[in-house]
Amino acid sequence: MDAILEALSQISSFQTLAFLLIGTAVGIFIGAMPGLSVNMGLALLFPVTFSVGGLSGLIMLLGIYCGAIYGGSITAILLRTPGTPASAATTLDGYPMAIKNGQPGRALSISTLASTFGGVFSTVCLIFFSPLLAKVALQFSKPEYFALAIFGISMITSVSAGSILKGIIGCLIGLWIATIGLDAMSGMERFTLGTLYLSGGVSFMPILIGLFALSQVFINVEESFGKKNEHKDIHIESVLPAMSDFKKTLPTLVRSSCIGTFIGCIPGTGGDIGSWISYNQAKTWADDSSQFGKGDPRGIAASESGNNSIVGGAFIPVLTLGIPGDGATAIILGALMVHGIQPGPLLFINNPVGVYSIFIGLMLANIVMGLMGFSLIKLFTKVVNVPKPVLLPIIVVMAVIGTYSYNHSMPDVYIMLIAGLIGYVMAKVDMSVPGVIIGIILGQLAEQNFTGSLLMSDGSPMVFVENPICFIFLLLAFVSLLSPLYKDFFLARFLKK
After folding, report:
1. What is the rounded CA–CA span in Å between residue 72 and residue 382?
2. Which burial class, exposed, middle or buried, applies to 283 when counting CB atoms under 10 A from its CB (0-12, 13-18, 19+)?
3. Of 42, 192, 203, 461, which is the most buried if we count CB atoms within 10 A?
């Protein structure tokens, strides 16, 4: 109880609440801008967390995360252009209701309601289930942690890319970057090129900003080259949800939130999968599905509650096991580690105040997101008219300043530029960019526990096979690497119309 009260006192400070509001608003803006992404927003504003203080900065990132996922529904409904991939299913019923039926306010109100409901629901699940999983994970030793890291790596690489080979290549790049610097066990230099800068390893921050933020700028410049910015006039009436819509969509909200939370717990999935499965399950369970695709409120509710409930579910493996499920949670995991918070089962014992602060912050972020959606939706819709020639240079300047301010190092800026070019090339060839970040984070965990396990067993690799939990995780890792072979088959069954 003392930890909860202390967490509440820290969260309730004016600075923390102010940055929560700022982060949520910025997240909605980023999500509503086609071409920008959740990962880009998190990576770009990561450096800001150092200047505003640990907890306030982390809470701001949570606000960005929640706000960006919701913000994608604004342009999905009004322009039939999803701001984020997770909002793609929202276009099926959101756009017809807004444009064809002439009810943009109603469509946005249902979207805001569903997003808030899904986010709050998944946060409640996070609060209840993550301590239980942490208790189980407390029984883990070095072999189990090694196998767990391999399992996490295999999941993200197999799901986030179009082929096994591309996923493995993306992961190997991250693993190689993780090895740069001095070996923790022997002190031997690895890939340092004889420079003092690389002897301490490559800084996480410039790679993060380059891969996710700067690379996206390059892509947007290419896509918008020679195109004129078209001004779009959008009229929005009242965005308060009607009670009839709430009653009609309530069963869908609960079912889709459960689906999204469960999918979020699985590393390597994402809001797009949760959204589509929730949408199609809503259509399957509907008494009359003839209106789906024509502006059915249940379609909007299913998609938005399904993708926003991913957030709370995704934090369960992050906090309890230190395993990120996608690029966004990988960035937040990196932020936690940089600020001295080490996710894992011991987090609940060593830093209960930090855990409860994240719980409360995530709950408040979803509530603030809903309040902003209902009160400021008319203002946020204007982001669709921000010209790219104005927006993109601002992002570049912020990326350079944020990277330099981290260590006050120009080599960090050069690394960021190189990472941006690499991220651009990887995106063009459909290679796993999040896999690189996951490889960096989990690569260190895997290496440390691999060497530790061999020391425990006097060099015998049988320690990874004799341990049942370790063996199961390694077996699951092997199965996940083959997932592209059977993924399409199972998704086709779940997403069957």
Report:
1. 13
2. buried
3. 42
